[in-house]
Write a structure and sequence with these properties.
The chain is α+β, with helices and mostly antiparallel strands. Helices cover 30% and strands 25% of the residues. The strands form five sheets. The protein has a five-stranded antiparallel sheet, sandwiched between helices. A five-stranded antiparallel sheet has the order 7-6-10-9-8. Strands 11-20-19-16-17 form a five-stranded antiparallel sheet, covered by helices on one side. Helix 3 runs antiparallel to helix 4 and helix 4 packs antiparallel against helix 9. The longest helix is centred in the middle third of the chain and has 38 residues, at 316-353. The model is unreliable at 1-49, 373-377 and 445-451 (pLDDT under 50).
Length: 716
């Protein structure tokens, strides 16, 4: 926002800023005086009572001057030198102070917030508060306070209540707005609203209400229901039934305490629902939405209560205003319910994708912080780690474009496809090529655009860790580069040649490069998404630099999960999150040399016998049982025989012991895929794979840069 010219008065500033918030011709109720510009320091408007006050604040948020001497502000003391927070209810101080500081820092106005002010006698008044930067050359803030006439309050409240998709915040905003008509306001919502369930029918015997908001914030008598408390079933039935007379939603008024006690007919219900022991009256207004097609009538989402002294009777015009405000709010409550349901579904999917515990060769820890509930919805960040055949581990991180269920569906599909392809033996680069095709298919007319969602531009980074060779293969599709912390504490970013994101158009399609590097035992690999390092005030390289500096402080003996939380706490934005924050730490310990063996043998007829003679003494040193040893030697012999007979080039044999599991892997430079098939009794080919299949718990093929490797796992 451009600074306001110094010639503009506070009234001009406020009037201009609020112009879009006050409907033309609708800023006052019948019989109320129009809002006039103040004529001077006297505080009286020309032709009517002044309802606009101005408070000037210094950079320390203390009052430097005020104009609150008009009648509507009677009892509100704004002495120079006192903190503006002294005018606020205690529960509102943190939020308002944060907004004041933000306007001070950014010089962007905050307009038309419904706010309560404390009077000297402890009562409260409702105002429309706007915060604007002071006109140059002055510093500080100008806070306008409009003593809100009922209709103006109605319009401002309706605008303010619809700004959040959080159910709790929506209920609290409604309760604060209702205070303009009474002394105490409460909002009770049905359980289905809290849980995000679909509300499709109205059965009074099943209605269960929970108190969502209660204002003002003060000490209440014992037994009185406060936010978070469940209303007794009888109270829920009475409140919901009272506002649904003849299946028509309407407001009701009980004019005095005696009538209220007769209606409740239970001292416990009176203590739970009536605020205090003094004479009171109450208006109950339903939160209703239209039922689905075929429903018998409207659906009650909840009930609001407005309490005030019995001598101040609720007039018909006030009830109409209350019903109008609550009716508008019901739509926002239902939207918040739907949003919460979608938010919970996406969050459950993403948490299901989070890595589980690592193995004895690698330790993993992850932190996932979703976007705030009132943002556009949970984003498409995902991270995963899972074991691969041959004692390897896959580490995958991705960021799907967009938010909500469309992004969640694409995220789930890409994550599961990446896991399936990696488990099938494809390398990181080959997996990204297929994910690239998948993203393009997701964007076709039938699957993507018809649903109003496109996954083009999603990013992904895949790393595969080999604990025997202490090496990592990594391939990257437009994602931020991982950070590698060496055992000595030095750190660097690593990654393959930069490549466009998945599904990127109008670029020359190049193969995904695979980068290979050594990771000594004790190295730490850091995968993350942009929500962790992005800062509007700094470049992305500076954000990655900050991350590098922070992860260098992770000690090899630190608990990795606690370390991951510390990293996120130091780097994640302090403002409400607008993008997911995802972090994966992988501490690589490697496999001990005494638990592995690798031999490189020529492709000759005697190679199977040579492989058996090398493996036999090693299996004895590992104290492998006789039956398991014989099975392992037979599997090695069959795999090496196939490699010599059907493959090309030298043969590599690798044995790995991992607890009670033995892994045998035989590699060659051929590219033919061994296949298990049914053969005739007289066939002299294919029997080796049948032997391997019978003796092992599982077996398969993975592709390498030079050919293939056939692996098999056996119980030791």
């Amino acid at each position: 926002m451009d600074p306001t010219p110094s010639s503009a008065s506070p009234f001009d500033m406020v009037s201009g800023a609020l112009g879009d918030y006050i409907p033309k011709g609708g800023a006052r109720a019948a019989g109320e005086r129009p809002l006039h510009r103040p004529s001077g320091a006297g505080g009286e408007a020309e032709g009517g009572e002044q309802i606009l006050g101005v408070v000037s604040l210094g950079q320390d948020l203390r009052i430097s001057g005020s104009n609150l001497d008009a009648a509507p502000f009677a009892g509100v003391s704004a002495a120079p030198g006192t903190a503006f927070a002294d005018l606020l209810p205690p529960g509102d101080v943190p939020t308002v102070t944060q907004r004041l500081q933000r306007v001070l820092d950014t010089r962007e106005a905050h307009v038309a917030r419904v706010q309560r002010l404390r009077r000297d006698d402890g009562t409260e008044m409702v105002v429309s508060m706007s915060i604007l930067p002071a006109a140059p050359p002055q510093e500080g803030l100008t806070v306008s306070l409009i003593a809100m006439a009922k209709r103006l309050h109605l319009y401002a409240s309706a605008a303010a209540i619809g700004t959040s998709l959080d159910i709790g915040e929506t209920a609290q905003s409604l309760a604060q707005s209702l205070l303009a008509w009474g002394d105490v306001a409460a909002v009770n919502l049905d359980y289905a609203v809290w849980t995000g369930e679909a509300v499709t029918e109205q059965a009074q015997d099943r209605i269960r209400l929970r108190r969502a908001a209660l204002v003002p914030d003060r000490a209440w008598p014992e037994g009185y229901l406060t936010p978070g408390d469940n209303l007794p079933r009888e109270a829920s039935r009475l409140l919901a039934g009272a506002v649904m007379r003849d299946d028509v939603a309407r407001a009701i008024v009980i004019p005095d305490r005696e009538s209220i006690e007769r209606a409740l007919d239970d001292p416990q219900l009176v203590r739970a629902l009536v605020p205090g022991s003094r004479p009171v009256s109450v208006a109950c207004i339903p939160l209703v939405v239209e039922g689905p097609e075929g429903a018998s009538g409207p659906i009650v989402l909840g009930v609001t209560e407005v309490w005030r002294r019995p001598e101040c009777l609720f007039r018909e015009g006030e009830l109409l205003d209350l019903q109008e405000l609550v009716a508008k709010t019901a739509r926002h409550v239902d939207l918040a319910r739907q949003h919460q349901r979608e938010h919970a579904q996406v969050l459950a999917l993403q948490r299901r994708l989070l890595p589980r515990a690592g193995s004895d060769t690698i330790e993993v820890a992850s932190v996932y912080e979703p976007t705030t509930p009132d943002s556009a919805g949970v984003g498409g960040d995902w991270v995963n780690s899972f074991p691969l055949p041959g004692d390897r581990t896959a580490l995958v991180v991705g960021d799907v474009v967009g938010h909500g269920l469309g992004a969640a569906a694409a995220m789930g599909q890409l994550s599961m496809e990446a896991r399936a392809l990696l488990s099938a033996g494809l390398g990181p680069g080959e997996v990204l090529e297929r994910l690239d095709e998948t993203v393009t298919l997701l964007d076709d007319t039938d699957a993507g655009l018809a649903a109003g969602y496109s996954a083009l531009g999603s990013t992904c980074c895949i790393a595969v860790y080999d604990p025997v060779d202490h090496r990592v293969l990594i391939s990257n599709a437009g994602h931020l580069p991982p950070v590698l912390v060496h055992p000595d504490g030095s750190a660097e970013t690593v990654g393959a040649q930069p490549h466009p994101a998945l599904g990127a158009e109008f670029v020359v399609r190049e193969p995904f490069e695979v980068h290979e590097f050594t990771v000594p035992p004790g190295s730490l690999l850091v995968l993350y998404t942009d929500g962790l390092v992005e800062d509007p005030a700094a470049s992305i390289d500076e954000g990655i630099g900050r991350l590098t500096d922070v992860v260098r402080e992770v000690h090899p003996w630190d608990d990795l999960q606690q370390a991951a939380r510390r990293v996120v706490a130091r780097l994640a934005p302090k403002e409400p999150l607008r993008d997911d924050v995802t972090l994966l730490l992988a501490r690589m310990a490697g496999r001990r040399s005494r638990d592995t063996a690798t031999w490189h043998l020529p492709a000759r007829a005697d190679t199977p016998a040579r492989a058996r003679s090398l493996a036999a003494p090693l299996l004895r040193r590992w104290h492998t049982g006789e039956q398991a040893r014989d099975s392992t030697l037979l599997v090695i012999s069959e795999l090496v025989t196939n490699a010599v007979r059907f493959g090309t080039g030298p043969v590599t044999v690798r044995l790995v012991r991992a607890g009670s599991l033995l892994t045998c892997e035989v590699g060659d430079t051929g590219n033919g895929r061994p296949r298990l098939h049914r053969g005739d009794l007289l066939d002299d080919t294919g029997r080796g794979l049948h032997v391997v299949h019978k003796l092992t718990t599982r077996w398969g093929v993975r592709w390498t840069d030079t050919g293939k490797a056939v692996w098999a796992e056996l119980e030791a």
